[in-house]
Amino acid sequence: MRIIKAFVLVFPMLILTACPFVEQKIKYPVGHVPQIVTNFEAVNSMYDDYNSDLHMIFGKYFLQFSSNKNSMGSDYDIVGRNLLITWDQQSGNFDLSAGYPVSYGEYMQPMLDSLNTACDELGPNGFGFFENQESYDGKFIYLLMFANDCSGDFEIQFNYTETNAYYNDCTSYIHPCASIDFVNTEANELYPALFGEDVSPLGYWYLDTDKFTKLIFCSDRAGHYDLFEAGLPSAQDLMQSLVSSDTVTVVSLPLNSSADDKCPFVYGNIMVFVSDREGGFGGFDLYFSKNVDGEWIEPQNMGLEINTEFDEYRPIISALEGFDNSLLIFSSNRPGGLGGFDLYYAGISFGQD
Q: Mind listing the pLDDT tens digit for each residue in 214-270?
């Protein structure tokens, strides 16, 4: 189908294919992600593809997720894809596609190669920011948090890269993986997410990391999985906070139930997570909560339009500039997929889009 007018979020510009002498009226100036759940076939395989993360680097969307496709069903690695989001302003059609090569492959792909092992790597969560956050100057730093079970249980780790790629200098340095010891125990800790009440959900690639105050994660330290929150240690910068050996206060969140509550993901003042608590539709369901005046309010089930009697897992959300709702990506083992867990997407609104 020929696109007459569209905007592509990777390059926010109009693409005109109609005759330049005939003015085409824009019928759908505002984008809308369809609410119907759609299998993201462009990234799925016959193996398990789940635990995704989505962020923007220099105007390009980058999706990374855990998959055991590289090992043909054995251990999980974190893999990456470019993401292209298109809205046709003439027909009102939405399209989500993915492909190679990985954006900024000079340092993103080597970074993933450096953290993947013969063990399992799950729950990636990353973003980039400038060294000088007031002027968007200096080195560009990309931080990636994840969990690894090489020690026998899952522990939260991170690595990061420094590069001058923004200035056409692709020289970069990838720091070795380090453990976030102030939250790790002999139990399993996974799915790290940074939170700050004043952190804007849009523009994560130029955010002020000094506004992050807490690390949210899940752990089975109490005998089943709960959501926890830890205050970040005081340090000169975020990376120093993450490697700190200081003792911090770790508290169980009021969102927890007597069942398993896992996979937190935070975007602005919204937290999404999964739970197999009573009152759901079967297996793990997707839930969300808002942070209001510093408190997480009673979580809500995302409903039968999203959830099924099977397992829905690791939700992430992202507001899209020029759209009236948000993009939800999650994984599920529902029938009709390509095999195992597949990634799915749908449009969703939390009453603030």
A: 999 999 999 999 999 999 998 778 999 999 989 999 999 999 999 999 999 999 999
Tell me whether residue 334 is in a domain.
yes
Which residue segment(s) compose the domain that 51 sits in? 5-348
Query: Is residue 166, in this structure, part of any structural domain at all?
Result: yes
Q: What is the CATH number of the domain that holds 291?
A: 2.115.10.20
Residue 319 domain-assigned?
A: yes
> What is the number of domains present in the chain?
1
Average pLDDT, the chain: 88
Q: Is residue 353 part of a domain?
A: no
SS (H, E, C) the chain: CCCCEEEECCEEEEEECCCCCCCCCCCCCCECCCCCCEECCCCCCCCCEEEEEEEEECCEEEEEEEECCCCCCCCCEEEEEEEEEEEECCCCCEEEEEECCCCCCCCHHHHHHHHCCCCCEEEEEEEEEEEECCCCEEEEEEEEEEEECCCCCCEEEEEEEEEEHHHCEEEEEECCCEECCCCCCCCCEEEEEEECCCCCCCCHHHCCHHHCCEEEEEECCCCCCEEEEEECCCCCCHHHHHCCCCCCCEEECCCCCCCCEEEEEEECCEEEEEECCCCCCCCCEEEEEEEECCEECCCEECCCCCCCCCCEEEEEEEECCCECCEEEEEEECCCCCCCCCEEEEEEECCCCC
pLDDT at 199 > cutoff 70: yes
